[in-house]
């Protein structure tokens, strides 16, 4: 969780129900809900970045791609949470009334409301509107927690059914985007080393550097440089295609600034 964001505190009824899960399922759910809250925090920050800064059109496009990627991850995590939370339901009550949303959907709303309260409280010293709405937001949180606990109780007792958790969200496809960036003519050859941690990537790359006069670079460093240049907080939130575009652009920039370098070798981060 981002240390500049508030933790997500679940209501007591849901917490007690989660305590009945097997250790493996409980750990999986804890991790998924924590990641969901983290993604919501990153979404908030990225949307603020788009609204509050004078960005170039390219930077706005990058932020929009990041928002799409985060929203896709958000829905995937909510579905994973529902896979575990669905075990609370009494499957024998097929005639029970159907609730309008899943348990993870309510948890997701609670996460967003927690962030809204936190950001409003931070702004309240300089924003009169934010200061006035903080008590109402806390009231909304109390009501939502009570409603969530009531829903958990009804689901466990078989008084309510939950809808199918699949969201079928669509946030665009990378393969519909035309790749415009091309390798620089000065980027003649690149050797990349990949593999698990401590498998010998760095040793092999250092050998190529010494024997062939290669320039040794790290993918993580190049991506961070590209993100800084584009005003992006986290390049790893972008799609694999967009990361590749940023990486190639940074390699091009380096190659054109070091014309005497004949061979590049990159080590995976």
Share in β-strands: under 5%
Rg, nearest Å: 24 Å
Mean pLDDT comes to 83
SSE string: HHHHHEHEHHE
Helix content: 55-70%
Question: Which stretches are poorly predicted, pLDDT < 50 over at least 5 residues?
Answer: 173-179
How many helices? 8
> How many DSSP-defined strands?
3
Major sheet summary line: 3 strands, parallel
Distance between the termini: 22 Å
**Strand line-up in the sheet with most strands:** 1-3-2
Question: Keyphrases for this structure?
Answer:
3 strands, 8 helices, mainly alpha, 59% helix, 4% strand, 3-stranded parallel sheet, 269 residues
Describe the structure.
The protein is mainly alpha-helical. The chain has eight helices and three strands. A three-stranded parallel sheet has the order 1-3-2. It is elongated, with a radius of gyration of 24 Å.
In brief, what are we looking at here?
The chain is mainly alpha-helical. It has helices spanning 12-18, 23-52, 57-85, 103-123, 128-157, 201-212, 219-230, 240-257, and strands spanning 190-193, 215-218, 264-267.
Task: List the SSEs and their pairings.
Elements (H helix, E strand, L loop, with lengths): L11 H7 L4 H30 L4 H29 L17 H21 L4 H30 L32 E4 L7 H12 L2 E4 H12 L9 H18 L6 E4 L2
Parallel strand pairs: 1-3, 2-3
Helix pairs in contact: 1-5, 2-3, 2-4, 3-4, 4-5, 7-8
């Amino acid at each position: 969780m981002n240390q500049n964001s508030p933790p997500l505190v679940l209501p007591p009824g849901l917490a007690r129900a989660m305590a009945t899960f097997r250790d493996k399922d409980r750990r999986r759910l804890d991790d998924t809900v924590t990641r969901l809250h983290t993604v919501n925090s990153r979404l908030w920050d990225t949307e603020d970045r788009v609204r509050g800064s004078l960005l170039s059109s390219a930077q706005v496009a990058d932020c929009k791609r990041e928002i799409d990627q985060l929203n896709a991850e958000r829905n995937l995590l909510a579905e994973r949470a529902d896979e575990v939370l669905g075990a609370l339901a009494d499957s024998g009550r097929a005639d029970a009334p159907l609730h309008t949303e899943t348990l993870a959907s309510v948890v997701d709303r609670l996460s967003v409301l927690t962030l809204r309260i936190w950001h409003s409280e931070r702004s309240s010293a300089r924003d009169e509107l934010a200061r006035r709405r903080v008590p109402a937001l806390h009231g909304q949180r109390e009501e939502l927690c009570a409603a969530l606990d009531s829903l958990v109780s009804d689901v466990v007792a078989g008084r309510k059914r939950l809808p199918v958790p699949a969201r079928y969200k669509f946030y665009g496809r990378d393969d519909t985007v035309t790749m415009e960036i091309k390798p620089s003519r000065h980027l003649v050859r690149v050797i990349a080393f990949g593999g698990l941690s401590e498998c010998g990537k760095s040793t092999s790359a250092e050998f190529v550097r010494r024997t062939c006069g290669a320039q040794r670079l790290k993918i993580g460093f190049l991506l961070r440089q590209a993100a800084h240049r584009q005003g992006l907080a986290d390049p790893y939130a972008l799609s694999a295609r967009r990361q590749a575009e940023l990486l190639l652009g940074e390699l091009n920039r380096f190659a054109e600034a070091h014309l005497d370098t004949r061979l590049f070798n990159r080590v995976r981060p």
